Fold this sequence. Notes:
Layout: H1 3-19, E1 28-30, E2 39-42, H2 54-68, E3 72-78, E4 81-86, H3 88-98, E5 114-118, H4 130-148, E6 152-159, H5 164-176, H6 182-185, H7 189-213, H8 218-224, H9 226-239, H10 243-267, E7 273-276, H11 277-280, H12 285-294, E8 298-299, E9 305-308, E10 316-320, H13 328-342, E11 346-354, H14 358-370, E12 379-384, E13 387-388, H15 404-422, H16 430-450, E14 458-459, H17 473-489, H18 506-516, H19 518-528, H20 531-551, H21 560-584
Parallel strand pairs: 5-6, 5-11, 6-7, 11-12, 13-14
Antiparallel strand pairs: 1-2, 2-4, 3-4, 8-9, 9-10
Helix pairs in contact: 1-2, 3-18, 4-19, 5-7, 5-9, 7-8, 7-10, 15-16, 17-21, 18-20, 18-21, 19-20, 20-21
The structure holds one RNA strand.
Amino acid sequence: MSLQNDLSLKVIAAVKELYQVELPTVEFQPTRKDFEGDITVVVFPMLRYVKGNPVQIGSQIGDYLQEHVDEVAKCNVVQGFLNIVIEDSYYLNFFNGIKQETNYGYVKTLLDGAVMVEYSSPNTNKPLHLGHIRNNLLGYSVAEILKASGKKVYKTQIINDRGIHICKSMLAWQKFGEGETPESTGLKGDHLVGKYYVAFDKAYKEQIAALVASGIDKDQAEKKAPILLEAQEMLRKWEAGDAEVVSLWKKMNAWVYAGFDTTYKNLGVDFDKLYYESDTYLLGRDVVKEGLEKGVFFKKEDGSVWIDLTDEGLDEKIVLRSDGTAVYMTQDIGTAIQRVTDFPDINGMVYTVGNEQDYHFKVLFLILKKLGYTWAEQLYHLSYGMVDLPSGKMKSREGTVVDADDLITNMEETAETISAELGKLEGYSEEEKQQLYRTIGLGALKYYILKVDPKKRILFNPEESVDFQGNTGPFIQYTYARIQSILRKANFDVSTALDMTFSLHEKEKELLKGIQQFPETIQLAAENYSPALIANYTYDLVKEFNSFYQQVSILGEPDETKKQFRVQLSQKVGEVIQSAFRLLGIDVPERM
RNA sequence: GGUCGCGUAGCUCAGCUGGAUAGAGCAUCUGCCUUCUAAGCAGACGGUCGAAGGUUCGAAUCCUUCCGCGAUCACCA
């Protein structure tokens, strides 16, 4: 039973005894720093049930608590706030209870169904950029948070490996590629293919310009440019299973996958199951036909199938073209159902997709509900804001993108420069150093992106490099490294049981309160699908630790029991930092 | 135009289901390395919480209207 629940019952009992009234709930908040106390009862809401002056009511409840609750040491009342000081022994007991616990704060997997988390889902015609990085980090982190909160999780992505955009890079490679391969050029496969996607666009624009110059109007030119017609023809051949086109498609996609694998590995993200759009794009049509019979959908005169969502405040939405082919929505309906077929224990899904698709997912979820799938109640669109540059939106065709691989390299180099200046790594091999620069560089990047609420858009200025001081990944990693340094120097068994009867330093108490909040923070982050809550929690804990570190001597403490306690406390803080950062996909270093 | 999201310090962001004088970091300025890692700590400076109404004992938080920014409203994906 948590302290708050316990106190809540006692307060209710106090009010019952003092005023003969049954309170439904009691409101608590952490005591503000400028007042004495650990937890505060807000008296105002009680005034509805108890007539009287809040200060007087507060003091009377306070007296009662002091008398009847062991953990309550002292009370004071300021205005309508009853501040309660909790006994040190309570916090020490709490610490004793959890200090040996591994993976403190994580809930062991329960058997109440699984959640599938989809993220990444790139196109296979160009390399990943900063926007994809946000997607990958968010999706991966939310998956880890859900796991830690007690859910079984499948990580997945649907790879958009077909369509006209893929044909564009294929065609350009065929025309201008002269047989180039990743091996012959030394380029990463995704970058090589991306190069031809850009080449296509260049040729296309030139043809349009030529056509316009010859007197054709712009709209027509855009539709009639020969290279575009060729790409469309290539798509038709692909859909017809033309051996040559399919073989080229396979070859170039394999290059891209190899490139993506490297980027994913660098980012530290992974997947349990991959779906390919080339396998799923035909799904969903049977479901639409069923839905038509059930009356969920209706058919227009031209044969196209729609759903009417005007009752829900939305519009009509097409689910099947007049020629009977699938649209994006049809596929997504089919894919969702396919997933539940593949993994029957799924009872919820999270789609990590940018907020420009808010409407699409709102409609998709509504359709699945109307089709009567019970799991449709448990679908969540993890919608996130775009990552913009000072120059505006990123456009891969115009070259105004921050490439994912370049960015990662940049961050590592920055970490290297700063580390070299500080020069604390004597004794490290070159390999260890490189590994460390990677840990720090990625830590900076990941934290920078994940600490922001997913809903908000991020303005990323490549000119101003990501910070390494203050509320940053490296700051937190640094604190972890400091703790490890202490543990290396503390040459005694830190698991020793201690006689916990001494009084706590104010900073020690604050740290224990912080540690105590970790489990509930994980639950909150899971409920809100928000890695930012984990990031901000970790930052607060780390700030508190650094303050403690500066004010209180750990290894220099003469009292042996207190010294051991402080080492153990530091160790636990280190463990929490590590666990929290694992949820963000960030590593922590032993030294830095 | 309809719908959705966002608007908090010069900049980047916190602020839980309404609660005490709105909090951090960066930047600027002060102090602190003969003692456990100064990527740190302590402090100063900096805010009509986009605007106006409303609900309430009490509003950055809830409601309404307006303003600004973004997204979306395709037989594209």
